[in-house]
Amino acid sequence: MKLRSAALATLLLGLPATNYADSLGRVYELALKNDYQFQRAKAMYQADAELATIARAGLLPKIKADYTVRNVQEDSIIRQLITPAAGSLVETDVSLNRDVTDSGWQIKLEQPVFDAPAWYGYKQGKSEALIASTLFEKAKQDLVLRVVNSYLNVLRAQDNLAAARAQERAFAGQLQKTQQRFDTGLIPVIDVTESQSAFDLVAVRTLEEAINVEVALEELATLTGEEHQVLNLLRGDFVVRAPEPNDVDQWAQAAGSDNLQVIAARHTQAAAKDKRKAAKWEHSPTLTFGAFASSVNTSGTNDSSIVSPFILAPDQESDTFGLELRLEIPLYEGGATSANRRRAEHLYQASRNFVSETRRKATIQSRQLFLTVKSDMLRIEGRRSSILSAKAALDAAEAGYSIGTRNIVDVLNAQNTLFSAERDYANSRYDYIENSFRLRATSASLSSGDLYRLDAFLNPPSNQQATQRIVR
Predict the structure, then answer these.
(1) Which of 67, 205, 333, 405 is the most buried (most CB within 10 A)?
(2) What is the CA radius of gyration of the chain?
(3) Residue 81 CA to chain centroid, in angstroms?
(4) 387: closest CA among 236, 208, 201, 196?
(5) Nearest by Cα to 429 from 212, 188, 69, 148
(6) How many CA atoms lie within 13 A of 306 on its CB side?
(7) 160 vs 90, 222, 433, CA distance in Å?
(8) pLDDT at 15
(9) Orientation of helix 448-455 relative to helix 408-442, angle to 10°
């Protein structure tokens, strides 16, 4: 890892930033092709999309054709009439050996005329196909969310690493100055100890942040199937806007009706309703029309122990065509039909409750996310102001320390406050983006277009910025 990072750092010195930084759009396009979770969801959708066709087959004609060749060899003793003398018939036992071959074809067509369970099964299959389509749309939204979150998690970790390194350099410089002032007798040794302790703590934190960067990059690579080191950075002029519409009730209403999980739950209820109707009709008769045609050729030999004009060769041909109308009435199947009807009723009631539960959760989540986004906006503005205040406080602490009115602890605390304010400001912007995307997802208004619009606010880092953000 050190060799790889060192090689990358060397490369950064000779290349413009646009040549090595991965954009959010490129990461998303890689995830579309390489994310196993999304590919599995896509395969499941393609499989379940066939449910409507499978269910419709119960209403359409069924045509079967077969060709059969059958050979039968039989040894038997039969009673047979013979004519041992002219004009007389005598009954006797005759040994008969038959070797017969039948060959022929048959075609049969069946068309349901009345089959209520099959009709409601077809409607159930259409609802199940709609469930699959809705869940696939949700998988698309989830991929956008996972890509944005993983991308921003890397930026968070890299920002924290860059801030830790900057803090480490600042504390190192402070430690050096403190040591020099102690050597000249201007300050007590406790100041050197405090500076050393602060430097040691931030050095450990730098190592921890480097590990966090590696973890975040590994999670991103899980989505894309490729390794990443440097990503585009969020621009300083990123515009923070209130949700549109800026009304929590409208977002809650949209979530209650348009949320993809709610829509899938409604399709599930429709499928359960049709399954209940199909189960109720399982005791009803079914009427089926049929047509069939066949042609059979029989050939072979009959060897007997005597010669008789009554023992004929089995050779014959038969051509058949027929029509049928079959009425079937199920009477009793061990209680399974009634049990299935009761079970379908309970499943339907459960699906109704699931719709209400899902709608309630989506509505509450939408309200919570709307309020969170509004809070994020206030938090961003407050933390931007806190950076200015922290800088002024640090300047005052350093000035007071230089004239002896403040001690080193005051300076170190002021530095920690400034770095914390800068880190919290960056994180609050990422929180705002993530929560805004999640809010849009609750009303099914999130799409890949939102991701590409965010990508327009991400620019390649400078070589110096990239060097501070990679693990080395």
Answers:
(1) 205
(2) 41
(3) 80
(4) 236
(5) 148
(6) 18
(7) 114, 22, 18
(8) 43
(9) 150
Other Cβ atoms closer than 10 A to 218: 13
Burial 295-317 (b: 16+ CB within 10 A, else e): ebebeeeeeeeeeeeeeeeeeee
Which residue is associated with the tokens 């640090």?
394
| The pLDDT value given to residue 75 | 82
- Could you tell me the CA-to-CA distances from 152 to 21, 100, 165, 209, 213 in Å, in that order? 14, 80, 20, 15, 11
Judge whether 358 and 262 are in contact, CB under 8 Å: yes
pLDDT single digits (tens) 59-92: 999 999 999 999 988 888 877 767 666 667 777 7
Assigned token pair, 463:
């070589």
CA pair distance 354, 72, nearest whole angstrom: 61
Using the structure block, give the residue that is written with the tokens 């395969």: 43
- What would the 3-class secondary structure string for 346-359 be? HHHHHHHHHHHHHH
Which residues neighbour 372 within 8 Å (Cβ) at sequence distance 6 or greater? 435, 439
Query: CA nearest 256: which of 113, 363, 412?
Result: 363
Q: How far is the C-alpha of 51 from the C-alpha of 192, rounded, in Å?
A: 75
- Residue 6 φ/ψ region, left for φ over 0, alpha for ψ in the -120 to 50 degree band, beta for the rest: alpha
What tokens were used for 304? 């007997």
Distance between CA atoms of 356 and 363, rounded to whole angstroms? 11
